[in-house]
Amino acid sequence: MQALSSKAIFRGVVSAACMCVTSIPALASEQVGKYSVYFADMPLSVALTIMGRDLGLDFSADGIGRTRIRDVELSGTPGAVIDELMEETGMQAFAFNGQVFVSPADESEVRLIQLTNLTPEHVLEALEEAGLLIPEYDITQVAGGKAMVLSGPIKYLALSESVIASLEAKPIVAEQPVRVRRAGVLDSDRVANVSEETAVE
Description:
alpha+beta
């Protein structure tokens, strides 16, 4: 990891007892406690390492290159601070399964996913349970519910596609009318005759 120069000044204050990624699933929760930090001049990768250490978060960054952050003071809930940092550096971030994924804001993509044996409701329910139903990333159904269009960072799309691929399609069983087999007139007569003969005996 790159060493901090004398110009890189860091000041962090965490007043919450515990902070973890599950507390900010969409990086916008009103986490109890406040986090304050000042960055004079340093690579974004170093800033993320410092914030990850202080907040107990695991940042995974792709495509940030030599992006730097200069003379920025951030303060608020962890989610708000991360959001502001992303805005300052032209990045975007989302949290999933204990990690915060960071990537350039202009590197979002759109994917069309065919739904062979799944319903849109089933897919949305699974994504919500996985923590991937994020308001900032659009999900729409098309072709009469036979396909869905997802948009967002490449990593988000890859994770969402993995969740959808792992789903076990619930077969849709059409409700069938119950048929009751009834004896015809001849059968009824035969049964009656047999009963009478048995009674005579």
